[in-house]
Specification:
The chain is an all-beta fold. The protein has one domain (6-132). Helix content is 0%, strand content 51%. Strands 1-2-3-6-7-10 form a six-stranded antiparallel beta sheet, with no helix packed on it. Strands 4-5 form a two-stranded antiparallel ribbon. A hairpin with an 8-residue loop joins strand 2 and strand 3 (55-64).
Length: 134
Amino acid sequence: MIAKKLNIAAGYAFIDARIDQDRVFPVGNQLNNAPQHTVGLWTSYEIQSSTFKGLGFGLGLFYVGERQGDLANSYSFPSYVRTDASIFYKRDRFRAALGVKNLFDVEYFDSSYGRNRVFYGEPLTLQGTISLEL
């Protein structure tokens, strides 16, 4: 254990998603919207003593590799790294949190269903929550 209430989560995925039989698209083409490599890292820490007991912070990095935009593999989307963050406060049964997705407002493509239906990823987004456990 590095420190009490320090949490670290990491993940990696390798996906070789290809067409193995089809009458329209070439066999071996990569499936659209399926990056071969994705990586995620999230860490959070909650202060355990002093006046700030219950206050916590989180930070995450998420990498999505290059991926095809259509089944013909006629265009692709570049890889990107997105950063998320959070700050939270917990005391007894009360919890309040503020999350920030895409902290640096990176512009990236999320998905595509043909050249006429290309979707951007979410811009910088804030989300707040308050909860009370009964």
